[in-house]
Design a protein that fits this description.
By secondary structure, this protein is mainly alpha-helical. The protein has five helices and no strands. Helix 1 packs across helix 2. 17% of the residues are buried.
């Protein structure tokens, strides 16, 4: 679960870049959080700030048990996970690996 919390800003950013429907929903989330504007980047920045305030690791590198060598297997499991059906954009395994790499490096 901590891994999901760490990944959240990266997944939101990915969805903003790949799904118009996700971008359309983000202003509602931004308003609910009383953010100063409704741009996706502002929401991602707010999620990162909240994570930091809650002591959630900012990157996968900060977590024990997660290594880049595992990203391929983890991505394969992620694209097969039933929860992926609820995502507004269905990423490829390669795209999931890219999200993991970004979450590892903090991009």
């Amino acid at each position: 679960r901590l891994c999901n919390a760490t990944l959240l800003p990266y997944v939101v950013e990915f969805n903003a870049e790949h799904s118009a429907e996700a971008r359309d929903r983000m202003p509602r989330i931004s308003r609910a959080l009383s953010l100063p504007d409704e741009r996706p980047y502002t929401l991602v920045r707010a999620l990162r700030t909240m994570s930091m305030e809650l002591g959630i690791p900012r990157t996968l590198k900060e977590m024990s048990g997660v290594q880049p060598a595992d990203f391929g297997v983890l991505a394969e499991l992620a694209v097969k996970d039933a929860c992926m059906a609820d995502n507004l954009y269905t990423p490829t395994k390669y795209e999931v690996v890219t999200v993991y790499e970004n979450a590892w490096s903090g991009k």
